[in-house]
Amino acid sequence: MKIAFTAVSGQLGRTIANCAIEKFGRENVIGTARTPEKVKDPGIEVRKASYDYQEEFAEALKGIDVVVLISGMAAPDQRIIQHRNVIDAAKEAGARKIIYTSIIGKDGNSTFDAIVQSNRQTEQDILESGLEWAIGRNGLYLEPDIEYLDNYVKEGKITNCAGDGKCSYTSRDELATAYTSMIGDDSLNGRIYNLAGEAITQQQLAELFNEAFSTDLQYVPISVDEYLRFQVEHNGEFLGPIIAGIYQKIRNGEFDIKSDFEAVTGRAHKSVREICSEGRGIKKAN
Ligand SMILES: NC(=O)c1ccc[n+]([C@@H]2O[C@H](COP(=O)([O-])OP(=O)(O)OC[C@H]3O[C@@H](n4cnc5c(N)ncnc54)[C@H](OP(=O)(O)O)[C@@H]3O)[C@@H](O)[C@H]2O)c1
Predict the structure, then answer these.
(1) Nearest residue CA, atom 45 of ligand 1?
(2) Of the four, 115, 116, 126, 145, which is 20 to 30 A from 83 by CA?
(3) Are 100 and 135 in contact (CB under 8 A)?
(4) For residue 285, what pLDDT is reported?
(5) If you average pLDDT over residues 85-92, what whole number do you get?
């Protein structure tokens, strides 16, 4: 069975591909990348393919049985078209099955919801593709928060608009375990899985960081409007509302979901405490 991963230059694509190498053998794992020169330590065949060009993808997916489509980063309308390019290319190239990395989230009206909706549209496109399929809805990665820890420490606090809302977090390593199961086990086909660990508040996150990293962070909630203004000022008109909308969804309980991780992998998801303790390694590596 030949498996192709899109966006293997990115962190999730690379992490799942590395896990798949262990299970399916290096010779059966192929990476695709818009920018192949960015692929770190490939050790696998890498083929050039951008989500913007269906023909390029159809060529790159020749001889592939299972395609793992990593969600893109473009604006929602563009992203839907890009994902359709990959789905259509997979069909054109004769692939048997497609797996898609989507996002958790109940419907809401935050500034992140257009992104969630674009992921839901791709899910629908996959359901209607005629290919065999399995879809994961990813919880929020913990790693970006761990990588941001020095900034939290400088400020002495974690500040956002999540309030008392709970969020179901995960890590790219945990997701890699789940997607590797979904690749190999066809009895998991035809379903959408929430892939995340326990749901925690930002107050609990601050406490777990303090425990794991010997910090002394407080959680300081602010209003949705104030946080949106802050994010737009610091991260601009595209990314700012996306980040602010994520915390608005947490505030509204829309990222507090029931996980299917154990049904997919056969084991419980690691706790946030365990991921944070492994995260000490992430901190040292930076
Ligand atoms: N659940 C979460 O917490 C969370 C957080 C952030 C993002 N996400 C989603 O999860 C996805 C994977 O996350 P990540 O951590 O791996 O992000 P990442 O490290 O930033 O990687 C993003 C990847 O997308 C690729 N890409 C972007 N536009 C492309 C295009 N037109 N054609 C082909 N490849 C393209 C990038 O390729 P280049 O190297 O060429 O730029 C890169 O490989 C993201 O794209 C985003 O949709 C989820």
Answers:
(1) 72
(2) 145
(3) yes
(4) 47
(5) 98
CA trace torsion 141, 75, 192, 146 (10° rounding): 0
CB crowding 54-63: b at 16 or more within 10 Å, else e: bebbbebbee
Closest CA to 180 of 134, 141, 143, 139: 134
Contacts of 190 (CB under 8 A, 6+ apart): 132, 133, 134
Q: What is the identity of the amino acid at 260? A: D
Which residues are near ligand 1 (CB < 6 Å)?
7, 9-13, 33-35, 38, 50-52, 70-73, 82, 103, 138, 140-141
Q: Whose CA is nearest to atom 2 of ligand 1?
A: 140
Q: What is the mean pLDDT of the chain?
A: 96
| Residue 236, number of CB atoms within 10 A of its CB | 11
Ligand 1: atom nearest CA of 49 is 33
Q: From CA 191, how far away is CA 59, in angstroms rounded? A: 28
Q: Which of 14, 18, 34, 118 to mutate to test the pocket of ligand 1 (most atoms within 8 A of CB)?
A: 34
Token reading at 172: 């790219």
Cα atoms in the Cβ-side hemisphere of radius 13 Å centred on 120: 10
- For the cut 90, the answer to whether the pLDDT of residue 109 exceeds it is yes
When pLDDT is averaged across residues 2-29 and rounded to a whole number, the result is 97
Q: pLDDT (tens digit, 9 = 90+) per residue, 126-153?
A: 999 999 999 999 999 999 999 999 999 9
